[in-house]
């Protein structure tokens, strides 16, 4: 028997699987990577040796309106580790400078003060020379038109970012289920973009593209829009980190928003790439808190399972989802009981400029549900899970029993992905 620990909220749950059934465990190399130095040192070294860019201390000279885009409460970016190095560089180059931190919520709910303190630490949140603002994508009065995206969508950006003398960002790089990788340009679009812009970029045509997949940048139409947006708003400098399973920094990249980011993506691509191990049952997670706060985010971990589950198989998704569904439109799409084929047909016939909120997440979930049975092990209400056309289980063991019953056999192979958002699952040629 093999016992596997799975991140679940802020804790872990374990599942015991017979050796005869365990097909394999897919793990990112980040879980066993041994970094050179501590977290603060790694970040500081990256800041001192930026890629294709002057140091931040040089960029801030003479700048009065410095804005840093920072990730929101749904991302495990260790801002309390990053900020000391950022502020040291800023103060070295411009001792009188003040900094505005614009929280990149994208299409998410606003980040609370408590969540800011949890992320940055009270000492940063309380500083007199730092001002915090939270982006709200639905506030049209906060947006300014910049240009037209390659997709044809209107690029509307938060005025605070657009009017900065110097725009920088922090973030982290991990595989992303339709943007290829997180981090870099993504802090601008969708991070601080209008909901109108986000919906144009996340249209059904792009989500359906074979290139809008985990680990792919070249040919990815969503990435193309994002790069264009970051360039147009003059994102001047980034500091992005790579994290291990404990959300600790193991690598950092600073400098040019695209070139530094691409270097980080190359590292993550090698570190996170795993060969698919097709299983009748695939167990996945969203890597625990903060990415498994709701069902909306948990679709990401399901896509890793999708990439290695046998046709007609079962995906077991273990995610806390204490915040419930996380997207009213996502919930409504499935709770109406509509046939999934009709739902997908409706999505694919929706023009780019008619995309509705959360359509992209609904489209990907629908794609998965059309191919696989999905059982959620979660703290979200049982009724909510059922209404969203998935099955509910109160333990992974129970979910396996349910999967066996569905498949009509008790010897199906089981593949486990302890952190579904940290891997790039590739099918062997």
TrEMBL record:
Residues 8-215 form the LarA-like N-terminal domain. InterPro entries: LarA-like, LarA-like_C, LarA-like_N, LarA_C, Ni_dep_LarA. It comes from the Bacteria. It holds the Pfam family LarA_C. Residues 274-425 form the Lactate racemase C-terminal domain. This is Nickel-dependent lactate racemase. It comes from Lacrimispora xylanolytica.
